[in-house]
Amino acid sequence: MLKDKWVGSVLPAADITRARDFYRDKLGLEPDNPDAEDNVQYKCGDGTGFLIYQTSNAGSAKNTQIGWIVEDIAAAVAELQATGVVFEEYDFPGLKTEGGIARMPDGSAAAWFLDSEGNILSLNYMP
After folding, report:
1. Mean pLDDT over residues 83-109, rounded?
2. Which residues contact 61 (CB under 8 A, 6 or more apart)?
3. Residues 50, 8 contacting (CB under 8 angstroms)
4. Domain 8-125 class?
5. Beta strands of 1-127 (E only): which ranges?
6. Where are the domains of the chain?
């Protein structure tokens, strides 16, 4: 029933103005609803999108909440680092980042960073 439907994500923000500034200044995104006060909606590739809403629950999840598929993960990481985005470094059994990027045996790769609200976001490469 849902396999052919577009899907989006919903992220929490303790401070919607701070979140709006982060997504504009660091990620280069502009909201589709610039006049809204308690939420912002963003459109991304192929009709996908996400919403950020104001809540005191922001930053409490310890898992990746949204990810973008990129064609060149090293270039995407470097571009975001140039805007001030800091990538996480992980060293877990089966997952280790180097320069912020985890490379998998199948050729895929991922890199994680936090937004202004403490949400975990990712860049993903899939060969």
Report:
1. 96
2. 119, 120
3. yes
4. alpha beta
5. 8-13, 39-43, 49-54, 64-69, 91-92, 95-98, 101-103, 109-114, 120-125
6. 8-125
